[in-house]
Amino acid sequence: MHMWTRHWLHLPLAMLVALGITGAAAEAEAEATAAEAEATEAEVEATEAEAAAVQDDAAPNSGMLGFSAGVDFVSDYYFRGIIQETGGFIAQPFLDASMSLGPVSITAGTWNSLHSVGDDGFVNEGAPQIYYESDFYAGLGIAAGDMVGIDLTYTAYMSPRGSWGTTKEVALGLSFDTFAAPYATFAFEAAGGADGGPNEGSYVEIGFEPGVPLEDAPVSLSFPVTFAASMSNYFEYQNDMGVWSDGAGGFFSIGASLGVPLPVPEEYGSWDLAVGVNALMFSESVKILNGEDKGAKVIGLFGISLGY
Q1: Helix (H) or strand (E) holding 294
Q2: Is the Cβ–Cβ distance between 64 and 272 less than 8 Å?
């Protein structure tokens, strides 16, 4: 056999051996690549799980306890249609805490009104003139199904600088979680009176606050409407003879409110700005009680709040 013939016969065998070695190497390389891909996938999953855990830790409070705080700045202060202050600088800070136990919630807090206009004739010792009002309230709320809320609230209205004596009140509230967000409040004075009259009064307020859906907009827009009246002796006033009369009237109000969420990280709670305007229209008895001839008043509001 010639040399070239032996070479020709041995060539296919060499090629098969070479191909077998190459195939084994390729298979080993594929297995290594698959193992590396699995390791990479496991690492990605671990990273995602760690990120999810961090995100859960940084998520807003979803537990049993809740807190809120904020301050509003208003152009004028009328409490349920009764004049309190129409001049100077008015700031109204508040602090609120709540605990949820299933359908039941317990709430307590304080609401204050600070005025730059003093009241020299009614200043208590140690109380700054700016400290016009400090209210304490505590309440119990019950969710009756998915749409109805019932709450009972005790409130003590106090004036640290002594502009009036303490008024104590118990109020029953009803609210409905619908588009119009209707609510009703029935308040009963247990001591003192918001109108400064000789009798404890009772008050009813019915309102709505429909919201306007704004697609792809981070802001919220609503239009609060309120109807309020005296059930008994709430808007008492003195006539020219100095005799107190039971003002059976009340007031009507309508406004617009814009809420703007602030770009604060979720772990620091939910921050919001609020801008609003409200128009009050008074009955004759409330106009007499306030000592004003105007039948309407427009009030502006700007506030910032934190919820957690």
Answers
A1: none
A2: no
166 and 23 part of one domain:
no
User: Is residue 81 domain-shared with residue 157, that is, in the same domain?
Assistant: yes
pLDDT tens digits, 260-271: 999 999 889 999
Residue after which a domain boundary falls, among 34, 58, 82:
58
Q: Which residue has the tokens 């019932």?
A: 150
Task: Look at phi and psi of residue 196 and say left if phi exceeds 0, alpha if psi is from -120 to 50, else beta.
Answer: left
Residues 132 and 47 in one domain: no
Q: What angle do CA 192, 282, 120 make, to 5 degrees?
A: 50
pTM over the 0.85 mark: no
Total domains present in the chain = 2
Q: What is the pLDDT of residues 214-254, one digit of tens each?
A: 877 889 999 999 999 999 999 998 877 777 888 778 999 99
- What's the token pair of residue 158? 């106090």
